Amino acid sequence: MTAMKGDFINPAEPSTLKAMLSHSKRSGSTYKGSMTVKELLRVSAWTRATLWWKLASGVKVNWTLTVTPAGLPRTMSTRLSSPKVGLGPVTMETTYSGWGAKVSIKAPPASETTTELDSDKALLRLPPAPKR
Questions:
Q1: 54: pLDDT confidence band, cut at 50, 70 and 90?
Q2: pTM confidence score
Q3: DSSP of 58-123, one letter per residue?
Q4: What is the rounded CA–CA span in Å between residue 7 and residue 78?
């Protein structure tokens, strides 16, 4: 679901950030670049897990990444299109904040979880994941 509502590129993933920077031109605190979906899938576990629609391996993903003075991602704009599958230009904007903040993530009590889909959501059907 992440790539449906968020970005399928994660610059906080070290291997992805390294690849992005090696395919970018820098101007101040902004990096602009691109790479093919095939290259991105090769370097990014995040992308392999979240990119649920099938794109041709040659489709280019373009981005603009702005970093903080400490070099941490601040904002990212991602653009791509794949006319062969009817995906017309898509732009995603992501903002990163709270670097270094302490967080606590706790699983909900077992009494509040289920493995069954709610009956009112039973009609929800996602497209099949791409074959890898």
A1: low
A2: 0.68
A3: T-EEEEEEEE-TTS-EEEEEEEEEEGGGTEEEEEEEEE---TT------PPPGGG--SSPPGGGTT
A4: 8
